[in-house]
Amino acid sequence: METASIDYPRGVTFEQVWAALKESSAKFEQEMKESRAEFDRRMEETDKKLGKLGNRLGELVEHLVSPNMEEKFNELGFAFTSTSTNVRVRNLEDPNESFEIDVFLENGDVAVAVEVKSKPDADDVKEHIDRMGKLRRHADKRNDRRKFHGAVAGAVTSDSIRKYILKNGFYLIEQTGDTVKINIPKGFVPREW
């Protein structure tokens, strides 16, 4: 059996070839690190741009659904006298208890906190349940005995999320043309906080 041998150019040793390979490998690794860093920077930049786009889309949906919301709830017998958007509630003692409400409708006895999403999902509903608990605790600390209800508004809502929203006792607000409708089934009983 014949064995293969490597013929090195005259005057070049194995150690020199090995050193050249190591140097080449080190340069390649450095180029890969730089390339990865550039990729990460561009991904972070893209994420920021997408986040801003998502926020702008959310603002658009809020502007589409907010104007008719008070009227639609009043048709259900609420008699809301005040509607506020982007209500921030800060708890200076515990920042984890701070929160924001997209649309807040209120009268002397009842208030509805509305979470507005372009396309609500299960996590949005869970976060709103948490937000409603924070709202109740905040109100209790101030002896505010009003009843609090929640609602989720969406421009596009899947059937499974519709069911999930209603199952959790939230009013469902959906965009229909140039207005909104409060989509509640017969016998719906909203959850109170």
Key traits:
193 residues; Trna Endonuclease, Chain: A, domain 1; 3 helices; 6 strands; 47% helix; 22% strand
Can I get a quick summary?
This protein is of the alpha/beta class.
Instruction: Give the biggest beta sheet.
Output: 6 strands, mixed
Helix and strand pattern: HEEEHEHEE
The termini sit apart by 86 Å
Average of pLDDT: 86
Number of strands: 6
CATH topology of the domain at 65-182: Trna Endonuclease, Chain: A, domain 1
Helix and strand layout, with pairings?
Elements: H1 14-75, E1 82-89, E2 99-106, E3 110-117, H2 122-141, E4 147-154, H3 159-167, E5 171-176, E6 179-182
Parallel strand pairs: 3-4, 4-5
Antiparallel strand pairs: 1-2, 2-3, 5-6
What does this structure look like?
The chain has three helices and six strands; from the N terminus they run H-E-E-E-H-E-H-E-E. It has 193 residues and is of the alpha/beta class. A six-stranded mixed sheet has the order 1-2-3-4-5-6, with helices on both faces. Helix 3 (159-167) links the parallel strand 4 (147-154) and strand 5.
